[in-house]
Write a structure and sequence with these properties.
single chain, Elongation Factor Tu (Ef-tu), domain 3, OB fold (Dihydrolipoamide Acetyltransferase, E2P), six-stranded antiparallel barrel, four-stranded antiparallel sheet, 44% helix
Length: 344
């Protein structure tokens, strides 16, 4: 009986102590708040990835929703290409080249018509027209003289009214022939303004058709937007170009590291700050400097190998420029994960 009473008293003494201990563990202790000057001297650590300064470009086609099939692939992975160089040709290139030839022929025809209209007649045609005008003028003068003579004879007994009528008709006909010959000569010397305007509009329409055909033909060729290196091909001859493009292209002459800095650490990052990059497989870190701080907070994409690390952390991308020594080592390591230490 005495032992039972002692055990109960010990239990009553232990329970309050356990409760107090549980309350202390439930309320996490706050770390000491560092002074502002101490926070400014603290660097930032982050994970990052290697990326060319030009970014990785996904070069695609412009064939529209119907897609395009690769007919000829003119580059391979690792090839150095120049800006504007043709990388591939699509299956519809011959048809679009024929459309360009047809449009150019139409333009040539419209320009020839306009030139002929502006030039009016040839030298020989103009000379013949002038000769016809001269002949018509001479015939008109002769007919007018005959008409005047017939009119004078009509006033005497030697003439008659029928002869005068025939002479007047001949004179009127000669005048009409002279007028027509002069009109033909004027048409050869200077065309009508309305005809020239119509011909000029036809030329403008033909030039627009040529421009449209050439633009459609250019879409059947994929060209390099920048000078760089072909990193990866996504389609081969005979295959359709996928949604992610035909190939990936980047300028590897300058490499960056895109570090994902936690949003809470962002106040300690500044442009121009020195940094060090630790590359897997390398014994020494490489020097870098901060060149740009991102404008948007997003989810973390460079994941830590730690299985208990947060995969939904909010980070800001900070771009660092690597030195020349790192460029040579990481030339073929785009998207490699690295560790970054940004100094104050």
């Amino acid at each position: 009986m005495k032992r039972a009473v002692l055990a109960a008293a010990a239990a009553l003494a232990i329970v309050p102590g356990l409760a107090l201990l549980a309350m202390r563990e439930a309320v996490p202790s706050r770390p000491p708040v560092a002074a502002a000057s101490d926070a400014a001297r603290v660097g930032v650590g982050a994970l990052g990835r290697v990326e060319p300064a030009s970014r990785v470009l996904r070069v695609s086609h412009g064939a529209g929703p119907e897609g395009a099939r690769v007919a000829r692939l003119l580059v391979a992975e690792g090839d150095e290409v120049a800006a504007g160089q043709v990388l591939a040709e699509m299956h519809d290139l011959p048809r679009k080249q024929a459309a360009v030839a047809q449009a150019e022929a139409g333009l040539a025809l419209a320009e020839a018509r306009l030139a002929r209209l502006r030039a009016a007649g040839r030298d020989t045609e103009i000379a013949a027209a002038r000769a016809r005008v001269a002949a018509a003028e001479a015939a008109e003068q002769g007919a007018l003289r005959e008409a005047r003579r017939a009119e004078q004879l009509l006033r005497t007994a030697a003439g008659n009214e029928a002869t005068w009528d025939r002479a007047r008709f001949a004179a009127a006909q000669a005048t009409a022939e002279r007028t027509r010959a002069e009109a033909e000569l004027a048409a050869l010397l200077s065309p009508r303004a309305e005809d020239v305007a119509v011909a000029e509009a036809e030329v403008a329409a033909a030039r627009a058709a040529v421009a449209e055909a050439r633009a459609a033909r250019d879409l059947a060729r994929i060209v390099a937007p920048i000078a760089g290196t072909v990193l990866k091909l996504h389609a081969r001859p005979g295959e359709r170009v996928p949604e992610n493009g035909l190939l990936e292209l980047a300028d590897l002459s300058t490499l960056d590291v895109v570090a994902e800095v936690y949003e809470t650490d962002l106040p300690r990052v500044r442009a121009g700050a020195p940094a060090q990059v630790l590359v897997p497989g390398s014994q020494r870190p490489f020097a870098a400097r901060v060149v740009d701080v991102g404008w948007r907070v997003g989810r973390q994409s460079v994941l830590s190998p730690d299985p208990v690390a947060s995969i939904d952390s909010r980070v800001v991308e900070v771009r660092l420029r690597l030195d020349a020594a790192a460029n040579e080592l990481l030339r073929r390591r785009t998207n490699m994960q690295v560790q970054v230490s940004i100094g104050p």
